[in-house]
Amino acid sequence: MARKIIKLPSMSRVVAGSKATLELPRGPTYRRIFFVAGAATLLDVTDIGRIDVLIDGKVVQTFKNLARLNALNAYYNRAPDTMSDTAAEFAIHFERAELMDAVYRRAPGIGTADVQTFHVEVDIAAAAPASITLTAYAEIDPIPQNLGVFYKVREFPFSSAVAGEVEIDKLPKGGWYSAIHLFKSDVSSVIVEANQAKAIDASKGILERTQKEASPVKRVPQTATCTHIDFITDGDISQSLRTDLLNDFRLKATLTTSGAVDIVTETFDTLAGV
């Protein structure tokens, strides 16, 4: 049966200062979820805070806030999320258009035939308009499939008291890393080492050049706020950095100034690896 686009059940606790929850029906395979926010006036991107996707009670994707989700969607050259004083639209993508063929693109879809619960939590800021509303839709494949592998999106805070080259060696091993995003405006170069061998040693400019030439989907680097490390610019998921076989995995970043770096990782993984 062909894909469907459906309206999802009403979300609970859609009020300022609360955590709105979307309980997704089990059975179909989810390609992406669309959210439509509304308000009488004064709607702002800061009104939507942390967004978590949970399967069987485990957080499998997390976004610091709507601005972070917007930035990742923009990087992957997806249809733009929109925001006005009275309406906003944004999407969480499970299937990945940037992969090289239909089999690869559909593989990360969230199959729910063998899961017990699947839901999304959205923090709504206390300062959000009292009239705020939130409605959800989904693009699905109605044929039941098991969960299998999917993309896990995680955030790791890091802070350096000094500028210059800093080392990050606490990123978890186990998944296949497709991308690492360093959200700080002045990361000028990066080195990725796997078992002491350099997998990447490049300036931000060189990384962005390869990303802009990616195929089948050209990337749109978020230069002002982020330095991206993208292992699959040719659309081949097998080019992801496998960390399940590594003894040592570390990242070195050169910072123009000291301060905080939000590290966002995208790994191809299973629920057992969460």
General description of the model:
The protein is mainly β. The chain folds into two domains: 144 residues, Jelly Rolls, CATH 2.60.120; 123 residues, Jelly Rolls. Helices cover 9% and strands 46% of the residues. It is built from three helices and 19 strands. A hairpin with a 2-residue loop joins strand 14 and strand 15. It is globular, with a radius of gyration of 19 Å.
The coarse overall form would be globular
- Number of helical segments with 4 or more residues: 3
Going by helix content, strand content and strand pairing, the class is mainly beta
Gyration radius from CA atoms, angstroms: 19 Å
Q: For the record, give the distance between the C-alpha atoms at the N and C termini, rounded to a whole number.
A: 31 Å
Task: Note the run of SSEs as H and E.
Answer: EEEEEHEEHEEEEEEEEHEEEE
Brief description of this entry?
By secondary structure, the protein is mainly beta.
